[in-house]
Amino acid sequence: MNDAVHSDFNDDLLRFIAASPTPFHATAEMARRLTEAGFERLQEADHWQLQTGGRYFVTRNDSSILAFVHAAEPLVEAGIRMVGAHTDSPCLKIKPHADIQSAGYSQVGVEVYGGALLNTWFDRDLSIAGRVTYKDSDSEPCSSLIDFCAPVAVVPSLAIHLDREANRNRSINAQEDIRPLLMLAPNGDQPTLFKQVVSEQLKQQGVNIGAADILDFELCLYDTQTPALVGLKREFIASARLDNLLSCYVGLQALLSADGEQHRLLVCNDHEEVGSASACGAKGPMLDQFLQRLSPDVSERMRMLDRSIMVSADNAHGIHPNFTAKHDAQHGPLLNGGPVIKVNANQRYATNSETSGMFRLLCQEAGIAVQSFVSRTDMECGSTIGPITSAEVGVRTIDVGVPTFAMHSVRELAGSDDALALKKVLELFFKRPLRLGHSV
Questions:
Q1: Which of 24, 101, 223, 375 is most buried, most CB within 10 Å of its CB?
Q2: Which value, in Å, is the radius of gyration of the alpha carbons in the chain?
Q3: How far is CA 118 from the centre of its chain?
Q4: For residue range 213-263, what is the model confidence (pLDDT) as tens digits?
């Protein structure tokens, strides 16, 4: 790979992740980039008149986004090249009645979102970000994104002297053990009012409201350590939320750089980490409703979908050098070994031989190595938006991703070559005509 292109791509990937501490911020950042690239923003409440040659995007709940390039060839004849990813990551979300006072300290109550590796959240410099809904000057509900940016919280570990079994047998109680510390309680034992803290931060961002005006919020903690290239030869990317902002970025870059005559669609859904069952999740109607508006006739839409294909991009488990026994010996992807095709006999992944063969062909043509992941037969397998989207929409789907260590940790690790490699394959996928469903 060209070193300058490789470096620029990874540097921009790190900037994208740093600008996206929550699904709301990730969606806003993708919307900003699409707007700069000339895409037109659609509102779901409006009547749409999509034009051939047009480039559009639409958001839902401020946390999911769909972008579409409308090519010239009839949809019913060409189908759509789709790429899907998800905007959310496991984290600690702040409870509505957040204030906790204990032993003279102000803390906030949290609940665990998704399958987080809780031990990695201790002793990290944490900030707060998300969405706040408040009463505006017209007494109407209004929402704004918020990001404290600076480290404002920490979950301190218990010293080894007070738990001599910590390195051998320490469990984490999600209710009691991971409450973040904000500050000393003011006036001795009086708890702070968290909404007041939020309103002061909003004022710094130009939203002049008081604590009493705040109606509700969706806020989470995030690690303020910036994404970085690490290793003696900068061979690895270390960052929070690589699962799955890396795939969102790769899909977006492929969409923006691809040319050709194919209809192209990128959808990045929220709530994958908790099952996708929401209005803006992959199990919800967002994609299907867009396709209905794009092709209202049922028969033509079914014909269009028969000529369409979805690549579900979500990180894969790389074989861990310290825990090789946790992997199937024949299916242990290596970091920087290329994108991974994910396979599961019980449909936890949507890959089949047809979609896998298509992806392998694209990798061959792009000059990119490709790997396979299958879980050990005696271990359960995670899942993605792939099987859900395939079932909800009825589109051929393959599950792929880049190999990753420490998935669902507060700081994950991926190879510095793999994101650009996957982008090259998806770019070719977006623009190469493909004959689907051909059997002899």
A1: 24
A2: 23
A3: 19
A4: 999 999 999 999 999 999 999 999 999 999 999 999 999 999 999 987 899
